[in-house]
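Q: What residues go here?
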């Protein structure tokens, strides 16, 4: 018979902890420091990671793994979001503060969102780095800085900023049409930016719009 969920957790936790009898005390040995693994991204480069699981409860096919460390013996485990929240494992901030409960959960959700944004725009960020290597002045350009900031924080970019990047890609002779750049068309100000573009400008950003947006603005 397979051990129950809670029994699996106890067995796996005690195996990696200094405390071997008191579960609550063993949990307090562990902490999380913002290290998140996107297993779907890892699978594309490492097929052997296809069965990524929680090393605490043994649940398989995880999208996100959180690396937790033991304060007493240096051991580590990769666990799922449910376990890191359910068993109240501390998140340690840069200033050393330990965060639990709702505040910790909010931080974890934010980290997942940032990781998702980073992966979804991976090709675009690489292209931005290549662009800077070709044109060092861009690093100090306010519009370029705003492009980077919007992509990093929101995962998408305003149409006028997308057009600014595309023109720089063209000027530097870079291929840009296969990038994964996301353009924000939901906000009214963004829709107005597209409506006010000339035909040439719109044709340049059109490739990054989905079918519904193209039908709306064509």
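A:
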């Amino acid at each position: 018979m397979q051990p129950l969920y809670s029994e699996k957790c106890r067995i796996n936790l005690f195996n990696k902890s200094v405390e071997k009898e008191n579960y609550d005390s063993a949990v307090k040995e562990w902490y999380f420091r913002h290290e998140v693994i996107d297993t779907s991204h890892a699978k594309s480069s490492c097929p052997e990671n296809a069965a990524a699981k929680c090393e605490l409860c043994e649940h398989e096919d995880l999208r996100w793994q959180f690396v937790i460390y033991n304060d007493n013996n240096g051991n580590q485990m990769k666990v799922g979001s449910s376990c890191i929240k359910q068993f109240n494992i501390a998140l340690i901030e840069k200033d050393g503060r330990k965060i639990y409960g709702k505040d910790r959960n909010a931080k974890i959700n934010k980290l997942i969102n940032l990781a998702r944004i980073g992966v979804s725009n991976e090709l675009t960020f690489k292209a931005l780095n290549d662009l800077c290597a070709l044109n060092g002045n861009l690093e100090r350009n306010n519009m370029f800085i705003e492009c980077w900031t919007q992509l990093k924080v929101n995962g998408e970019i305003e149409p006028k900023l997308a057009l600014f990047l595309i023109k720089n890609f063209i000027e530097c002779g870079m291929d840009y049409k296969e990038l994964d750049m996301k353009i924000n068309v939901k906000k009214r100000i963004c829709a107005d930016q597209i409506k006010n573009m000339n035909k040439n400008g719109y044709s340049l950003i059109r490739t990054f719009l989905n079918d519904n947006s193209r039908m709306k603005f064509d």
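A: Context that may help when evaluating the design: The chain has a mean pLDDT of 86. Strands lie at 30-38, 64-70, 76-79, 90-92, 98-99.
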